[in-house]
Amino acid sequence: xxxxxQHPLVQFEDVSYTVEGVTAPIISHLNLTVESGETLVLLGExxxxxxxxxxxxxxxxxxxxGTVLVEGRSTTAWDPIQLRRRTGYVIQEAGLFPHFSxxxxxxxxxxxxxxxxxxxxxxxxxxLELVGLQKSFLQRYPGELSxxxxxxxxxxxxxxxxxxxxxxxxxxxxLDPLTRASLQREFLELTKRLGKxxxxxxxxxxxxxxxxxxIALMAAGQLVFLDTPKAFLKSDVKQAQLYLKTLESEVSVxxxx
Amino acid sequence: MNFFQFLRQNxxxxxxxxxxxxxxxxxxxxxxxxxxxxxxxxxxxxxxxRTPVLGLANIMQTIPSLALFGFLIPLSFIGGIGARTATVAxxxxxxxxxxxxxxxxxxxxxxxxxxxxxxxxxxxxxxxxQVELPLAMSVILTGVRVxxxxxxxxxxxxxxxxxxxxxxxxFRGLRQYDNNLLLAGAVPxxxxxxxxxxxxxxxxxxxxxxxxxxxxxxxxxxxxxxxAVAAAIIAFIGYSxxxxxxxxxxxxxxxxxITIGSKDFTESILLAEIAxxxxxxxxVTVERQYELAxxxxxxxxxxxxxxxxxxxxxTAFTAILHHQPISDPKAVNEQVKKEYAExxxxxxxxxxxxxxxxxxxxxxxxxxxxxxKTISDAVPHxxxxxxxxxxxxxxxxxxxxxxxxxxxxxxxxxxxxxxxxLTYIALASHKVDLIAGNSTEGRIAAxxxxxxxxxxxxxxxxxxxxxxxxxxxxRVQKLRDVMASLAHAISPEEMRHLNYxxxxxxxxxxxVVQEWLKGKTKSQVSGGGRFQVSGFRRTGTFQPNKQGAFRxxxxxxxxxxx
Lengths: 257, 562
What we know:
The structure holds 2 protein chains of 2 kinds. Chain A has helices at 50-57, 80-85, 102-106, 108-112, 117-130, 147-159, 177-194, 205-211, 229-234, 238-256, and strands at residues 10-17, 27-34, 39-43, 65-70, 73-74, 87-91, 165-169, 197-202, 214-219, 222-227. By secondary structure, chain A is an alpha/beta fold. In chain A, α5 (117-130) crosses α6. The termini of chain A are far apart. Chain B has a 5-stranded mixed β-sheet with strand order 7-6-8-5-9, with helices on both faces. Classes of the chains: A alpha/beta, B alpha/beta. At the A-B interface, α2, β6 and α4 of A face α6 and α7 of B.
């Protein structure tokens, strides 16, 4: 495992990201540090740059200016394949390979890393239990699973090669509210138990308050708030207050009925 | 003869054609897959190449197949006549669906899945082989399936360039208006297309993502079925390759070898076959490249793919040498002989003894009722008539436009454009009132048609001759002998009889020629030296036989397309 003691796991240093032909930068002058063991939530409306921020970490994108450091090394200096195999990635709708069985999906990165089959087998069983699926799921295909089950497999796949860092892009966004709630709770337990570092993108303020150890609120490509959920509740930042108002109005609508 | 009797009698030829067809389709599809899939993959990686390359494949797809064969013939390496040209053309047609489906299949892979693959740290090679290709496979296979089915169809046209296959029966059936031949070509081709569609469909399902997870006992059956189909195809190809290897061995045994071509109508095949059998009787090995469409036989002769073929002086004069039609036979003969020797290094044989000119034909009853003898006689009546002509006649320099100008001929409506061999029946059954047939056509007498005299000598002379490559003539002495003995050896009556035996009585050209040559050899003994012009051994067989070769077909049911 990497020595994560000397450097913060992920560090954004004055990072901007622009797209040719678009005048406003997607991200401008972002400074952000993700410490080991925390779950940092990137919260914001669509188009605020939160997903772009996430994709800069595993070099799906490269910054236009500034540096993104992972384990103290710039992403431009990383071999992208190496970097991505040390980074678990979970996306909405899971992005499972439909032609792979559950077993093959979970074992993907270990097989790419050429683990021996015995180790892969025990790791897959371990993960399946970890995400709360029975052994009978191993030979099924994603098409036969419910949305929630698929997302569990997605999480298992991301964790398979024991990456020090997890990236999650609205992982529970497409699930029904009940499934979402139970997966959020389980995710919380999981990260606590495994002590994983995670960057979690969401536009759902409840989810952010629930799973995050810190919340980074983004608006128009800029970081407008960065602190704990508790501090978020008391924040006087304009965008934070807007989010808090939606919470209150939901409650008041219900109580007035 | 019913269809099943026909199949039984011709089973070995049918099997040969079937295997030629299958080998053509499979070779070309295989080549198209080997070229098309990598090209498709490349196009998914290079956005700038995608539009032009797909556009080019699209354009190639729209070239009519006969035209494409025409373009390919003069080319040196990929062209010529025979299976190679056909394979090239089939590959051209098969490429588009394969390339396009490869591109569509790969680009159609779910964005999430592709992004996940990248984010998991897969290399682009791993993504291609483990994600993109497996997920695109069923779409790609659909492309292969479409390509194969198209190939089965287009391969029937390959017969026109001497590549064999089931098209040989279809073309022959159209020409002789023989439903058995048509069916014997079309039914196996249709079955082959269905079989290809079905078996590749199975394979496609096997790779389909939707089918994943619904694997049950059925997949075992399916797998067995795929294996069985594959085994059957491999066995059949092996068998046909073995057959063709065997026939190749026997062909290369003799040192003197001549390839004889013919055009795609009965008389040309008969004349080619006469030369072929006479050469074979002298121990020369003959390879037959018959039924070449349009000007292919000329191209093939110049390209050295065939050594000789029968032609008509008037056709050579107008259609190949591009002269204005003239009616002096001697001048035409001399001009053709001279120009062919100078321009093409091709020798012209003596006249074979008959002319096959365009014959303006009307029904006998009309001719008698209106006392019509010449084309000029018919001009006043033509305003109430309709005419049907072969496509050739409508367009060629010595065809309809000149005829109309020379005689001031006008019809009730513009002439109908139809297959030449159908015009005779169309006339006999009152669908049209005047046609332009061939003067040696056996059915003229059989259907009680009357040829109007060309009283203004519009049609140039069409004396039958052979064109022979000069180098072949120098190489093979026996060919000179055969050419010499065929000079003025076939009378118009004999030619009409031979044509009728094939077209009317549905006999095989080889058999008809063999019988005729036997009769000739006998008269040669009595008459000495040369073949005699007249005195055909069998007498008066122009009338339909007792079953009524023509009555079997009901003229009223003919489906005529304007």
